[in-house]
Write a structure and sequence with these properties.
Chain A: Keywords: Cell inner membrane, Cell membrane, Cytochrome c-type biogenesis, Membrane, Transmembrane, Transmembrane helix, Transport. The complex is a heterodimer of chains A (61) and B (259). Chain A has 61 residues and is an all-alpha fold. Helices cover 75% and strands 0% of the residues of chain A. The N and C termini of chain A lie far apart (62 Å). The chains are: A mainly alpha (61), B mainly alpha (259).
């Protein structure tokens, strides 16, 4: 990687890696935030109706 | 006319249940990421050791990412168009989730296609940018992605923007064949297709194999990221609904006590 085009090639790969890792990180952190918020709500006893009925009555299927 | 509910639900109607979708996608997800990374490692690894092209020299290595990004930005819009049909025609409850989740990923890949193309163009064409038909139509695609991102996030109620977003996606789909055939219809600086041609790919295996593997890897990576982003969106809507429920309960605490 020392040819005349090395800087072009490395910057193309570098920017792409940066953007894709950033995108993956953003989606990953979002996932963690939503899961935490949901767990937080459940800890306060706020559940979805379907989740609540799962616990009290057996499923119809 | 009488059978309103089909006897056996199809594959897509099973997935219409968000809980079912979360369950299934959770199982598929790690495999998709694993396969994507495997294909990317193989493709980009072969790309590093690929010989220099007799015309492009070492910059041919940029093609192993530029071409997959360019394919992806068109494929992602196509995936969103199918989802938009899902919103408008079949009223699939996860269709607008799919559009909303795909738009930022599509925008990133389109931006990267433009950027890597530009970096390749500087040494090979002698210019970072020309307003030829291919580059301009991809730039328009990028703007449409940005518009779609804004539209899907403009309204608090997700159902309200779903229809408008679906219409924008379908209208914007007109641009996809324009991008694809721009190099044939107009006299462009951008070269015509060299892989998907009637007479077969016009390049040796030393370039074709890493290119196809890397394209496969990025495609799998898109589907993996898309799946995670869709799961996030479903969870976000649950969190919002539950927060509203919690707020309502806090307003009327005596309702359950009275009953």
């Amino acid at each position: 990687m020392t040819g005349p085009y090395a800087a072009y090639i490395l910057s193309a790969y570098g920017f792409s890696a940066l953007a894709i890792i950033g995108l993956a990180l953003w989606i990953g952190l979002d996932s963690r935030a939503q899961k935490r918020a949901l767990a937080d709500l459940e800890a306060r006893g706020i559940r979805r109706r379907s989740a609540r009925s799962d616990q009290t009555a057996p499923s119809s299927r | 006319m009488s059978d309103i509910a089909p006897a056996r639900p199809g594959r897509f109607s099973i997935l219409a249940n968000p809980t079912r979708f979360l369950e299934l996608s959770g199982k598929v997800q790690p495999w998709l990421y694993g396969l994507a990374l495997l294909a990317l490692a193989a493709g980009l690894g072969l790309g590093v050791v690929a010989p220099d092209d007799y015309q492009q020299g070492a910059t041919v290595k940029i093609m192993f990412i530029h071409v997959p990004f360019a394919w992806l930005c068109m494929m992602i819009w196509t995936v969103m168009s199918v989802s938009a049909l899902g919103t408008l025609v079949w009223r699939h409850p996860l269709a607008d989730v799919s559009v909303k989740a795909a738009a930022p990923i599509g925008a990133v890949f389109t931006a990267l296609a433009l950027l890597t193309g530009s970096i390749w163009g500087r040494p090979m064409w002698g210019t970072w940018w020309v307003w030829d038909a291919r580059l301009t139509s991809v730039f328009v695609l990028f703007l449409m992605y940005l518009g779609l991102i804004a539209l899907t996030r403009a309204l608090d109620e997700p159902g309200k923007s779903a229809k408008a977003a679906a219409i924008l996606v379908l209208v914007g789909f007109v641009n996809i064949p324009i991008i694809k055939f721009s190099v044939d219809w107009w006299n462009t600086l951008h070269q015509p297709a060299s892989v998907m041609r009637m007479d077969g790919p016009a390049m040796p295996a030393a370039f074709l194999t890493p290119l196809l593997l890397s394209a496969l890897g990025f495609t799998l990576l898109f589907f993996a990221l898309h799946l995670t982003a869709m799961r996030n969106e479903i969870l976000r809507r649950r969190v919002e609904a539950l927060s509203r429920l919690a707020a309502r309960r806090a307003e009327t605490p005596s309702k359950e006590a009275l009953a």
